[in-house]
């Protein structure tokens, strides 16, 4: 099952857009000019595809000085992993912030299988929280539970305020 938010961007049917997303994931932030030059495609075509990726929030602009520099978002990394735009180990390594890359790969494979069509794909800790709530087997989620600590601290800090408001 494909998550609707990833499917809507058209990566499944547009090979060039997958290649451009893969380029951005592997080579880091890049301008449309650099993408066009390195991939040997016309600049207007590269810019149009990058703008489409930006519209679906798969990439975002970062301060690059002279030109627009684009980098992959978490949603872009998840989409890249799903469509194999780049080596899945590289994508998992980019997503793994302080956790095992292999654990991230196992989690994403299970997430695509168990999560609903409207499951979140914008933040890895949120994805882990959602996976726990919908019943993804703990074997896939256990190694990523440390990512939930910031969420738990925010919720626990908010609970006393909620109780006093009643």
Automatic annotation (TrEMBL):
<dbReference type="InterPro" id="IPR036390">
    <property type="entry name" value="WH_DNA-bd_sf"/>
</dbReference>
<protein>
    <submittedName>
        <fullName>Uncharacterized protein</fullName>
    </submittedName>
</protein>
<dbReference type="InterPro" id="IPR036388">
    <property type="entry name" value="WH-like_DNA-bd_sf"/>
</dbReference>
């Amino acid at each position: 099952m494909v998550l609707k938010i990833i499917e809507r961007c058209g990566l499944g049917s547009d090979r060039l857009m997958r290649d451009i997303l893969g380029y951005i994931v592997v080579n880091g932030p890049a301008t449309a000019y650099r993408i066009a030059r390195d991939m040997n495609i016309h600049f207007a075509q590269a810019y149009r595809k990058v703008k489409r990726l930006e519209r679906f929030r798969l990439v975002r602009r970062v301060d690059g000085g002279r030109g627009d520099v684009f980098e992959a978002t978490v949603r872009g990394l998840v989409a890249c992993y799903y469509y194999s735009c780049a080596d899945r180990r590289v994508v998992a390594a980019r997503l793994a912030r302080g956790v095992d890359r292999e654990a991230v790969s196992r989690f994403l494979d299970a997430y695509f299988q168990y999560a609903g069509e409207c499951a979140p794909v914008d933040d890895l800790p949120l994805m882990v929280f959602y996976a726990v709530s919908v019943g993804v087997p703990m074997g896939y989620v256990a190694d990523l539970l440390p990512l939930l600590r910031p969420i738990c601290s925010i919720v626990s800090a908010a609970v006393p305020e909620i109780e006093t408001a009643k």
